Amino acid sequence: MANRRMIMSAFFFNPQGDHRMSWRHPGAPGKEIFGLDYFRRLAGAAEEAKMDAIFLADHVAIWDSYESNIAHYANTRLEPLTLLSALAAVTSNIGLISTASASYTEPYNLARTFASLDHISGGRSAWNVVTSGMNEEAMNFGRDGNIEHAYRYERAAEFLETAKALWDSIEEEALLFDKRSGFFADPARVHRINHVGKHFKVRGPLNVPRPPQGYPIIVQAGSSEDGKVLAAKHAEINFSLSRSIEEGKKYRADFDARLITNGRTPDSLKILPGILPIVAASASEAEEKRDFLESLTPPRLAVDLVSSWVGKDLSSFPADGPVPELPDEGTFNGQRTNLIRVKAMAAQGMTIRQIASQVAKAGTAPVMAGTPKQIADEMEAWFIEGAADGFNLMFPVLPGDWQDFTRDVAPELQRRGLVQREYAPGTLRDKLGLQRPANMFVSAR
Amino acid sequence: MANRRMIMSAFFFNPQGDHRMSWRHPGAPGKEIFGLDYFRRLAGAAEEAKMDAIFLADHVAIWDSYESNIAHYANTRLEPLTLLSALAAVTSNIGLISTASASYTEPYNLARTFASLDHISGGRSAWNVVTSGMNEEAMNFGRDGNIEHAYRYERAAEFLETAKALWDSIEEEALLFDKRSGFFADPARVHRINHVGKHFKVRGPLNVPRPPQGYPIIVQAGSSEDGKVLAAKHAEINFSLSRSIEEGKKYRADFDARLITNGRTPDSLKILPGILPIVAASASEAEEKRDFLESLTPPRLAVDLVSSWVGKDLSSFPADGPVPELPDEGTFNGQRTNLIRVKAMAAQGMTIRQIASQVAKAGTAPVMAGTPKQIADEMEAWFIEGAADGFNLMFPVLPGDWQDFTRDVAPELQRRGLVQREYAPGTLRDKLGLQRPANMFVSAR
Question: Boundaries of each Luciferase-like domain copy (chains A, B) (predicted)?
């Protein structure tokens, strides 16, 4: 425990902030979200505060199942690997975590891109493996609707095995650059992977040398059973959604058991719960900030959001009545965690309107609102109790909440010795205390 | 003609230079080719010389059909879209041309990436559309061997139509950012494309706004009949391989006729022949430089290269004998231009060894070797005669030949008023005099 420190990841999906209607906030940016300078400034502030990573979430579609979505929701954003590649050129230490879909890309292409990002960033890349649960996504890739949940996770597991073999296919010692003899590479250390599986057939070798980190750090964020099985085998960072310290500790204990079953040690997986930090001068100012944010969501958009979560149009049911029967989560092909959340609220007797308001309000991660000291206290408690190895910071409104946090909370955490004051040398793995994976072809010799 | 000027594109495939064995040259870089700094310096030099673009070629495989390939050929490089995204962050004016395969990617993914690159670079992206002609490539994407030539081009044409519809799917005026009313977008100006074709089914809309250039500039490089048909319809830059002014003029005339048939004007397609400039103090020094480069290729690698080009292992035939019967080019699924080139040499009675030596020597583009004045004279003649709208500069050895050219030849061309002395404002389209395409959804109203 002596060297254990809080890992700080600055998360974003909406470039205006994690609150769904953040774009309406007076301090939220406009069209500059499509340019590089906006992100360059955010990344610069994050590096100054010695944050560990920037985490870009992603969907491969616009959310437009219901009529309010296009009108009111800020559906557009830059592709994260493009953006992080650009940010790699103007940052030096911060980790670059990108979401990418294992359902709608090819292992050879994605392995190349991550390997290249790892090289140009000096070993700072991480891949948040997602399986893309939206119908809208499936329809952009030749399908009529979403792929079955278990099938997606099965494909993701095979995708990861294939990508790892590709990353290993040119051994570290393979490239000789021997100008005198004319031997560029040692053919015995360059491998065809000859993968033939249910989902992929890939010969290899990859045409990019092994990444500085061996593999990019593998991140996983789904908390369905299928997601946890994948994470326990492959993930090194888990982005979790726990609503309390108690829940966080249970989640940790569950994963520790799973890791051991997989022959891994608990410290090989860092669990980072998402939190929404709102810095304010007082508790009442924090409350006002929250109330203001909540006022920004059009009621219809909130209902349509719940409809998307449960795969059923709720707008045709009386808003003040109960939720109608919902799909079975065991066979549901969307994001099961969200379905279960709505079902739990319905079971408590909440009406459609109440659930919509609740969902619109808080999202799924706990809000930590208050003075810098109060926020630091709460984060410290989660960390000390073992409910978190660090946090995925989901700033409600950007750039304001990010700036407040880096200016006020980060130094407080540094004073307490909870987070780093300087970057350690080396790759992102080195900085986070994650092992560099052995090369499977070297190990097999 | 008054405003016509030479377009200068700095091309590279091998990061050590376009000569196949450039990596063995004493001045060639080592492992720094996998880092960003090497490319940042090259791009910086190119911008200082006011070059129009950097052009990154690509394959989605290692060339390893024959045993010499891995041993002697510098098969590894960074993925170009990752690298150009990073370079977008550290350059301001230069165009960023990236090769990407229409055979082994998905329209939604690639349209997003190019749209994002266009946004972060302020409208400097261009896509060199290729169809991937190597067996090695096919085998990394689920196939046993290469896809039939015509099928690849048919897919590429449908890919382009789909990508263009995606780029248009969010109209310029669609995003309102109206914080007061809560309308983020005008739903009437955000379009599902509902593409259903032989190769793709894509619903859309894209989740990135229309690129600053409308579409990235479309580049095409194959000179097969299928390639020319595609280029005449879609391309705005053509990377050609002509061995003489005469050939270049014929090529231009052929394309002019094709463009008119497609309802386009000749000036809507810029033709850039590839040339290998070798700057030297004298003609004899230039000759020495060429001889030295030629000495770097192991003879076996040269034979194996020809074997790859013609889809037949020639190493089992007597090197000093004639070339055996070769595949018919009409049904050949590899790069037909290369097959035809070898057939022409065989028809002249050249032996396998002679053809291998010839192929290893010069590549496929003409060498322009000499003093800066001699090179400028030759380029000027091609340009004035109408055989070229500019050039794709394939420097034999990097960074040396690039540095020599930007230091010595570029200023000479500037003095003659043939190339720009300063960058014009605006996007790459603006700078090159290429029209911004109309949005098909706006036009349809």
Answer: 22-382
Question: Which residues 27-46 of chain A have a CB within 8 Å of chain B?
Answer: 28, 30-31, 34-36, 40
Measured between CA atoms, the residue of chain A closest to residue B101 is A109
pTM: 0.95
B416 exposure class (CB count in 10 Å sphere: 0-12, 13-18, 19+)? middle
Q: How confident is the model at residue A223 (pLDDT cuts 50, 70, 90)?
A: confident
DSSP reduced 3-state for B439: coil
Cβ of residue B140 closer than 8 Å to a chain A Cβ: yes
Radius of gyration of chain A (CA): 22
Alpha carbon distance B32, B18 (integer Å): 17
What are the chain A neighbours of B175 within 8 Å (beta carbons)?
31, 76
- Residue A228 to residue B287: CA distance in whole angstroms: 64
C-alpha separations of B244 from A398, B222, B285, B368, B387 in Å: 57, 18, 23, 11, 8
> Which residues from chain A sit within 8 angstroms of residue B34, using beta carbons?
119, 208-209
Mean pLDDT of chain B: 94
Q: How far is B96 from chain A (nearest CA, A)?
A: 13
CA–CA gap between residue B385 and residue B260 (Å, rounded): 21
Backbone angles phi, psi at B277, to 5 degrees: -85, 130
What is each CA distance from A293 to A24, A325, B104, in whole angstroms?
9, 31, 44
Predicted pLDDT at A1: 41
| Other residues' Cβ atoms within 10 Å of the Cβ of residue B378 | 17
Amino acid at the residue A318: P
CATH architecture designation of domain A7-286+365-443: Alpha-Beta Barrel (3.20)
DSSP type of residue B351: B
Q: Which residue of A has its CA nearest to B63?
A: A207
B5-21 pLDDT, tens digit each: 999 999 988 999 998 89
In chain A the first and final C-alpha atoms are separated, in Å, by: 36
ipTM exceeds 0.90: yes
Of A59, A77, A177, the CB nearest to B31: A177
Query: With the CA atoms of B23, B25, B28 and B31 taken in that order, what torsion angle do they form, in degrees rounded to the nearest 10?
Result: 50
Q: Which of A223-241 are b and which e, b meaning 16 or more Cβ less than 10 Å from the residue's Cβ?
A: bbebbbebbbbbbbbbbbb
Asked whether A398 and A15 are in contact (CB, 8 A), the reply is yes
CA dihedral B215, B116, B123, A397 (to 10 degrees): 130
Cα four-point dihedral sign A59, A61, A65, A68: positive
Instruction: Name the E strands within B223-378.
Output: 237-240, 270-279, 367-370
- Full DSSP string of A364-416: TS-EEEE-HHHHHHHHHHHHHTTS-SEEEE--SSTTHHHHHIIIIIHHHHHHT
Residue-wise burial string across B28-67, b where 16 or more C-beta atoms lie within 10 A, e elsewhere: bbeeebbbbebbbebbebbbebbbbbbbbbbbbbbbbbbe
How much of chain A, in percent, has pLDDT values that exceed 90?
83
* pLDDT tens digits, A16-56: 999 889 999 999 999 999 999 999 999 999 999 999 999 99
Rounded Cα distance between A132 and A148, Å, is 11
Q: Tell me the CA end-to-end span of chain B in Å, nearest whole number.
A: 36
One-letter amino acid at A273 equals: P
Per-residue pLDDT at B362? 60
Residue in A closest to B209 by C-alpha: A76
Q: Do B70 and A202 touch (CB under 8 A)?
A: no
Averaged pLDDT for residues B278-283:
90
C-alpha neighbours within 13 Å on the C-beta side of residue A37:
6
Q: Does B83 touch chain A (CB under 8 A)?
A: yes
